[in-house]
Write a structure and sequence with these properties.
47% of the residues lie in helices and 9% in strands. The protein is α/β, with parallel strands linked by helices and 557 residues long. A hairpin with a 5-residue loop joins strand 9 and strand 10.
């Protein structure tokens, strides 16, 4: 059956919501008009194997004349943006988030201006009444919270102001809550240009008892996103970074267990001994919770061992990702080769190659090609990520130690500038290498006087005539005094089938601005979203030396 556009809701009297809905339908069109079940499948399942968003919820988002929950909108937009081939999915999500906020603000504004069942004040009323109305609503809201705590079966005292029916009570409750939100937003807007005062105000709001009660009241009606509370704006959101993907996964799994038990933040404080304010702050600020708090939560929620291990494993992954991001951000934007060369270990062997500078104390790091699982080192990354610069750094460091090199450059490369150095015994160009040609060049190598091949654009030579010789070099190079440092496009190296696949068995290398999580296979380590870099940042990468540790480094120039 051919894909069909979906019926759109009638939103002529809600221009902001209509714009959001129209943009959503346009994005689905760009994605090829996927079905609701296809979108559901693209979003996927949670840790308990439940659909994150079912197909009916997908349809409701497109066809109902209501503002969809923001969390649901975010995941739908992300899935469609990927299918539509948008280069920056996060920017697309942020764009729709801005449209959602615009609709939400309009809804809050209307709610704070028009009270259910209350006639509009006459033009002769002074401003005092307008100001007092929200506070009266706040008083009614607080009274509503108090009434809900009344024991079952206890009748409220008679009151002439008591609602005539349940619908009126619900309308008054909703109006009071929306008025409280409106008060917070209006006060924040008034303080917008005084950021210090605004931060203090928001801190007081989030620590207040009424704020926690409002959070609990909202959650009783729907699984609310805690970041809604108070004022949510770009000014106070944490800048997006891939490192926070692991953190958000942790929050999502924790939230699933919390909602399953119908625990409000106040209930979590009672159960775990960790303050409701701390739980709210971790949600609203998108922060890493204390590990002890998760242990207490797991104990009081009686999680099975598998869920307990998963929760703490996610915490470890989020902590490592945030630490890696912090170390990466602290690296120098550039460093010279001469300066980096002074940072190497004094006892480095002649086959030690400088690959980058990193660590808390800015130390020079690189592979020792005389040892390891295979005498190879892989430099992978997208175009303009600094692969050739890295290979030049590796070659210069080996030349500085007196090691003989064979340069291979099937395409123009900065490596060619080193071809006239005395220690360069051969320079091979062209998109093919003959078996006899390479065999003759490497025949001078020995364990006492080793030779290293430094090869740029290696993916071009995967099926060269000498591929069996290169494969044998990686397998037995230690015995023959041979080693190999190669660079290539990460996406093409992943799809190699001949000798290049053997190079991955070295389980070490440097990823420069990796674009794909599977790129970690090229250097023998699994990577997470925390190391994905888009767009590429030349000279910044992630080094793995076969020890299971991923290190952020800057490549010297």
């Amino acid at each position: 059956m051919a894909a069909q556009p979906w019926k759109r809701p009638e939103l002529a009297d809600q221009p902001d919501l209509k714009k959001l809905n129209d943009e959503l339908h346009a994005l689905r069109l760009d994605a090829g008009l996927p079905s609701a079940r296809t979108i559901r499948d693209r979003i996927g399942k949670d840790a308990q194997d439940y659909w994150i968003v079912n197909h009916q919820a997908v349809l409701d988002t497109f066809q109902k004349p209501d503002l969809p929950p923001r969390g649901r909108l975010d995941v739908i937009v992300a899935a469609l943006a990927e299918d539509a081939g948008r280069h920056d999915v996060n920017s697309e999500v942020d764009r729709f988030r801005g449209l959602w906020k615009q609709v939400f603000r309009e809804t809050v504004t209307q709610a704070s201006v028009h009270s259910p069942g209350v006639t509009t004040a006459s033009a002769g009323d002074d401003a005092v009444g307008d100001i007092a109305a929200p506070f009266e609503a706040l008083r009614e809201w607080a009274q509503g919270i108090k009434d809900t705590s009344r024991p079952t079966g206890e009748e409220p005292s008679a009151s002439p102001e008591a609602p005539d029916n349940k619908d009126q009570a619900t309308a008054r409750f909703n109006y009071a809550e929306e008025s409280l939100k409106g008060l917070i937003i209006n006060a924040s807007q008034a303080l917008w240009h005084d950021k210090d005062a605004l931060r203090i105000f928001l801190g007081v709001v989030r620590r207040s008892e009424g704020f926690v009660k409002m959070a609990d009241a909202v959650e009783e009606r729907r699984p609310a996103n805690a970041t809604f509370y108070g004022v949510e704006s770009r000014e106070f959101e944490v800048d997006y970074s891939p490192a926070r993907s692991e953190l958000r996964t942790l929050h999502r799994v924790l939230d699933q267990h919390r909602l399953k038990r119908q625990w409000s933040f106040t209930a979590m404080e009672e159960q775990t001994g960790v303050s409701a304010d701390a739980w709210i702050r971790w949600y609203t600020h998108d922060e890493l919770p204390d590990r002890e708090a998760l242990v207490a939560f797991s104990h009081m929620a009686h999680l099975v061992p598998e869920d307990h291990v998963l929760l703490l494993g996610l915490w470890d992954a989020a902590r490592d990702a945030l630490d890696a991001q912090k170390h990466s951000a602290a690296l120098p934007s550039s460093i010279s080769f001469d300066e980096a060369w002074t940072m190497r270990a004094p006892a480095a062997s002649a086959l030690w190659a400088l690959a980058g500078v990193g660590g808390d104390d800015l130390t020079a790091y690189g592979p020792d090609l005389s040892c390891g699982t295979a005498p190879a080192f892989v430099v992978a990354g997208p175009a303009r990520s600094g692969r050739s610069t890295t290979l030049v750094t590796i070659a210069r460091s080996l030349l500085a130690a007196g090691t003989r090199l064979v340069l291979v450059t099937p395409r123009p490369s900065p490596l060619r500038e080193l071809a006239n150095r005395d220690e360069v015994v051969a320079h091979l160009i062209g998109d093919d290498i003959g078996y006899d040609e390479l065999d003759e060049v490497l025949s001078v190598a020995s364990t006492d006087d080793p030779t290293v091949i430094v090869m740029d654009d290696a993916e071009i030579l995967d099926r060269c005539d000498a591929w069996r010789l290169l494969k044998n070099l990686i397998r037995h190079g230690f015995d023959d005094g041979l080693a190999l440092a190669l660079g290539g496009d990460e996406s093409k190296l992943q799809h190699s089938h001949y000798w290049l696949r053997e190079a991955q068995k070295a389980h070490r290398g440097l990823l420069l601005s990796p674009q794909d999580r599977n790129s970690g296979d090229l250097i023998g380590i699994k990577i997470g979203n925390s190391v994905i870099a888009s767009p590429a940042t030349p000279g910044r990468g992630w080094l793995h030396l076969g020890d299971g540790r991923l290190l952020a480094v800057t490549v010297p120039r």
